Amino acid sequence: MTRRLLLQGGTLLDPSRRLHERGDLLIADGKVAQLGGTIDAGESADVLDCAGCYVSPGFIDVHCHLREPGREDVETIATGARAAAAGGFTAVCAMPNTEPVTDNQAAVGFIIRQASRVAAARVHPIGAISVGQKGESLAEFGEMVGAGAVAVSDDGRPVVSAHLMRTALEYAQTFGIPVIDHCEELTLAHGGSMNEGIVSARLGLKGIPAEAEEIMVIRDILLARRTGGHVHLAHMSTKGSVELIRWGKERGINVTAEVTPHHLTLTESAVEGYRTAAKMNPPLRTAEDVEVLQQALRDGTIDLVATDHAPHHYDAKDREFADAPFGIVGLETALALVVTELVDSGMIDFRTLVDRMSTRPARLFGLAGGTLAPGSIADVTVFDPTYAWQVDPATFISKGRNTPYAGKALRGRAIYTVVGGAVVHRASAPKSS
Fold this sequence. Notes:
Elements: E1 4-14, E2 19-28, E3 31-35, E4 45-49, E5 54-57, E6 59-64, H1 77-86, E7 89-94, H2 105-116, E8 122-125, H3 141-147, E9 152-153, H4 162-173, E10 179-181, H5 186-189, E11 194-195, H6 198-203, E12 207-208, H7 210-227, E13 231-233, H8 239-250, E14 255-259, H9 261-265, H10 287-299, E15 304-305, H11 334-343, H12 350-365, E16 380-390, E17 409-419, E18 422-426
Parallel strand pairs: 1-4, 1-5, 6-7, 7-8, 9-10, 10-13, 11-12, 13-14, 14-15
Antiparallel strand pairs: 1-2, 2-3, 5-16, 16-17, 17-18
């Protein structure tokens, strides 16, 4: 049993309850016991000073790659979960493209056991759609869900077969889970390493056209319409994808979508100089795409922010651009990027930030958390929106250092991350004034 914990003097921000007011929050036995106003918890409670900070439901990242089992040299469940906690995430969902693939009950159980040994963010496994992510036959959804999987995906590989995708959407309904798809038409994307356009032409790099994403987006939306299943579209990057998602939602189709902080804040120009740190899949797109993605996040067409945290070995990116792997790390920079680039610019407010990074992920994926309601699980993020810092990859808790944001000045940082009533992260530096 954990000691009682009093979060004192912060601003309580909970979109699930339309709560935005100054007050205290008391945690007892791992649950929210009382909130609002001034709370006298007596001498038996530990007290955290939250003055100048927002106290919100814990952030949830529904899309990250923790690399274990198989690539523990790159990341482990432990280092990834600790990095998540440092970024303010109380829970993350781990993608199945591990070695071996997370496509069975035992593999799901392994991830849960490993995560239970770490005093950090919760880790929810995502099972593979197909056996071995080969796109040939469905994995056993029921056994994986029974073991703790919260969704299925072949992320890293698109589900090429429309028939298999249809079957997955039908089967997943039995278990009430979303089917997450990496939308990429491989014959169009083949050999590409960045967005197809003026920049790729100037750099002499083979591009990946927007249509490679959009063709699969509309296919998945139409299959969701046919089956009634819940399709969740990963890491959207184009204006056209937003238009298609809006079309689907207007017709009542069960489609949801996510966007990453890097697709919200960077354009293809970040690749100039053949910067492999800015190589990712889907690739960074145009300024117009970024603007539309930001607006879609604000109006709810895009449901949530997810990091697509993808660590690589320190020297993996140090090669010719076309040969370098896709992906960047994101758990420890996500909050500050959204604060700095979207909230400080006036594109969204803090209520929207918390909704898209906590409340909606919890609701859409059927996860505990996402609320500060009394009696709810005490997963809480306390963040200072004015905390100024500079990105230094050498200080990351993640084993990954592959980020295009090195040296960037940001505002906003998690001060305390609380999971089940226990403080699993405290900021290492004092809050800014």
